[in-house]
Amino acid sequence: MKWQGRRQSDNMEDRRGMSSKGKLAAGGGLIAVVVVLLQLFGGETGQQLAPIIEQVTQSQSGSQSIQQRELTPQEKEMGDFMNAVLVDTEDNWNQIFRENNLGDYEEPGMVFFTDAVSTGCGNASSASGPFYCPADQKLYMDLAFFDELKTRFGAKGGDFAIAYVTAHEIGHHVQTLLGTSQKVRELQQQTNEAGANQLSVAQELQADFYAGVWAHYNKEYLEEGDIDEALSAANAVGDDAIQKRTQGSVRPDSFTHGTSEQRKYWFMKGYKTGDIKQGDTFSELVN
Questions:
Q1: For 18-62, what is each residue's pLDDT tens digit?
Q2: What are the backbone dihedrals phi and psi of residue 130, each rounded to the nearest 5 degrees, phi first?
C-alpha cells in the first residue's frame, strides 16, 4: 500500500511506550476476558459491559504509576503508517456519506497503546486485540497484535493486512453512526443465544463488507498483492479457522464473526461494488 506523504490526522492519539505498573495491572486478565466478549458480541455491547469493567477496576486497590520509554524507529514508522490508514478512512468515509446522503461522517479517534489502556468502555489489556469502543467512538490498538496475526493466526505479512483489520474496526464505527449496532443489541436482547450469535455474525460480516468498500475507494493507493494480504487476514480470523486451530473441531452454532469464506466473500463484495447499499448481511444471514 502506498502510504507515505499523508497529512497528520487530528484524531490519532499515541500512548505507546506508556505502561501502568501496580495492582491495577494484576486484574488485566479478567478485564481482557470482558473486552474479548465485547469483540465477540459486537461494538454496542461495550456499553453493556462498561459497568462490569468499571466494577472490576474499582475493586482493585493499590496505586499505579506510569512508566514511559522512547519509541523505536520501527514503532515510529508503524505509527506513521497507521496515521495514513486513518487519514484514508477519514477521506473515503466522508465521501461515501456525502454520496449516499447519510449526513455528516463523524470521524472516530484512534488510540495506540502498549500493554493496557483506559477507554470509554473500561480498562483493557493488549490481550483483547484491536477493538472499537462505541462509548467514546475510538479504536484501540496495541500494534504488537499485527505480529501475532502472522505468528499465531497464520496470516500473510504485509501492511495491507493491517489496513484491513483497521478498516474492519472503522466499519463498526460506521455501524454505530448508522444505528445498526444499537438495533443489533436490541434484537440480541430479544432472542436466544443462537439467534444472538447469528446477529453478531451478520454485524461482523457487514464490517468486513465496509472494509471492502473502503478499499474500493482507496484503489489509487493499492499495490499488487494488497488484496491478497487482506484476504489472507480475513481467512486467518474466520471462526472455523480459529476453532480448528484452538479446539481441533468446529461448532457453527457458536460462531460470532463468520467463517473464513464468509469473511472473504463480504470483503470482496464491498471491494468489487463499492456500494454501501449492497451490504445487507442481515437479510441474507439472519432468519
A1: 765 544 333 333 344 444 444 443 444 444 444 444 444 444 444
A2: -65, 140
H/E stretch holding 22 reads: strand 18-22
Nearest CA among 213, 124, 139 for reference residue 173? 139
Q: How many angstroms separate the CA atoms of 53 and 28, rounded? A: 10
Q: At what angle do helices 73-99 and 159-178 cross, to 10 degrees?
A: 40
- pLDDT for 160-217, tens place per residue? 888 999 999 999 999 999 999 999 999 999 999 989 999 999 999 999 999 999 999 9
**Around 54, how many Cα atoms within 13 Å sit in the side-chain half-sphere?**
9
Environment class of 150 (CB within 10 Å of its CB; exposed 0-12, middle 13-18, buried 19+):
middle
116 φ, ψ (degrees, to nearest 5): -150, 160
Residue 171 cell numbers, joined: 466499519
Residue 3, phi then psi, degrees to nearest 5: -135, -10
Rounded to 10 degrees, the C-alpha dihedral 233/237/243/248 comes to 10
For the stretch 3-12, pLDDT in tens is 888 899 999 9
Q: Residue 130: count other Cβ atoms within 10 Å of its Cβ.
A: 20
pTM of the model: 0.81
Say how many C-beta atoms besides its own lie within 10 A of residue 106's C-beta: 12
